[in-house]
Batch of 4 targets.
Target 1
Amino acid sequence: MEKRIGTITVLVTDRSVTPQINEIISSYAEVVAARQGLPFRDRPVAVISLIVEGDMDQINSLSGKLGRIGGVEVKTAVSKTL
């Protein structure tokens, strides 16, 4: 499969699941090129943005595992080709 570059945005509304999120992201370290987290201290929400590079199976797997966690919303955007 050909590699693609993309972004995964993770909206966390239940901060108690943060250890689960971190474990999943760490297990995909070979796909994650960059990570940025922004906790909104005055609201019960946090945003994590990931820059990823990998084949569609890897990117979809990471996105899917994150999206199956309760209290988490995930949006993915991927380049067409490199």
Target 2
Amino acid sequence: MRVCVFTGASTGRQPVHAAAVAQFGAELARQGNGLVYGGGHVGLMGVLADAVLGGGGEVIGVIPQHLLDRELAHVRITDLQVVPDMHVRKARMAEQADAFVAMPGGIGTLEELFEIWTWAQLGLHAKPIGLLNVAGFFDHLLAFCDQMVADGFLPADSRAQLVTTDDPKALLTALIDAPSIADRWTVD
């Protein structure tokens, strides 16, 4: 299985985030699974890739040319794929993944999560989606999603698609065991 991970190009201010990301990467490699990610060597992306590589795992990075030009690519990964732009990057990452995980990060991480979650809701893929909720990082986002359900803007079964835990090993196990996501898009 290959897991596509969306995470930050920064390490953030709490060391617990980097520790959890490294633990997830090490567990991914230990179980013989591969990583698909944004191809960077900086921030939590670099921590993740290094942890997978350190465990002997496969790391596929997909990076747009403009970020490669800024010398942000991780040059030691298994396969670095250079694409023309961010749109192609996300599509290429999705094609190569069997599951998706969002970890602590910024607006790019959120944008990637919401796009892949929208694609699932529209029936464009049936792959599991998880959140590594380290130190409650996604608690406010999850509460907002619950509010969208309560207000009738998000179907409860779509909200339930997000497999969420603060334990990296448990998250990986839950993704492997998760049933595929059915087309749940409906018009009220």
Target 3
Amino acid sequence: MIQEFKTFIMRGNVLDMAVGIVMGSAFMAIIQSLVNDVIMPPIGYLLGNVNFSNLYLLIKEGSTPGPYGSLALAKKAGAVTINYGIFINSVISFLIIATSVFFMVRAVNRLKAAALRPAAVTVEATTRECPYCFSTISIKATKCPNCTSSLNGENH
């Protein structure tokens, strides 16, 4: 059973999947930072200093009555909230990830297509047409076997 497990773990698909998950996690951290630290602050500023991660809808106040200055304070007080600002950040993250994955897959598909495309093969002609009787003859022929014309420009 241990040998069977080793065989399963060492299969190419399992290793590829593991690498994909690790790379996806690292990529997700980069995208989250891009959204939270680069994209959302200017958007929030343009919309009047709005911090999207602090946007929420209060359903029920917590042990300490509101208003709460931030989502963290509302959660600390035990308030029940709908955190639509975090949802907005997640949607923007998803759109960025989907777009970047689309362009990566598109580039890989183009590289694969170029690699699979057969190389241009130049084929040397082995036949030609007799200028007198228009039959197909060997390119090396000096006399047409059909009409017996000399192919050096002389006619017999």
Target 4
Amino acid sequence: MPTEPDRGLRAALRVTEIFHSIQGESSRVGLPTVFVRLTGCPLRCVWCDTAYAFSGGESLAIAEILRRIAEFDCATVCVTGGEPLAQKNCLPLLAALCDAGHSVSLETSGALDIGDVDPRVARIVDLKAPGSGELAKNRWENLDRLTARDELKFVLASREDYDWAVAACRQRRLFERCPVLFSPAQGQLDPTQLAQWILDDRLQLRFQLQLHKLLWGNTQGR
């Protein structure tokens, strides 16, 4: 008879790709990382750069995902999407990755409940600004679940988005809760302008560009 852990490792997920690259975002930027991109997303942000992950993919058991990750001999793993939490078996996958000794981060829109994510996982929550077209999908209850090991990301396309994000952070005391990241939406907001606004307002946060795009452009699988 298979044990409970064995049954858990047989659970399957829809996977768009598994690849080895340089982490381009968050406080882990620059680290060699294995990315597991899960298929499917209930959001349709206007600037989405991973629409190819909305459908398709390959059904893989957690055991097979772990095997493929092990081939890269890399300690750092990022589970992303799409929206990874849209698949219920994302939760046992995250736990299995931690059990295997990996340093794990989860990139999530924050539209779905993050409360059951393994506490060993760093949750990178992307709060949607008005310019995304998905402001109504923000699950505000998630903000109360954030800890100092998590991070909150805002992708901004305009001054309106910037002012909204600053107000949200100040009103909800998010700067004191966890690291906050501001990024310009590629091709929509000049990065230098965003950097200047941050300096002018003396904000205590991390400005970030997508390092992987500076290195490889918009190539899929990077």
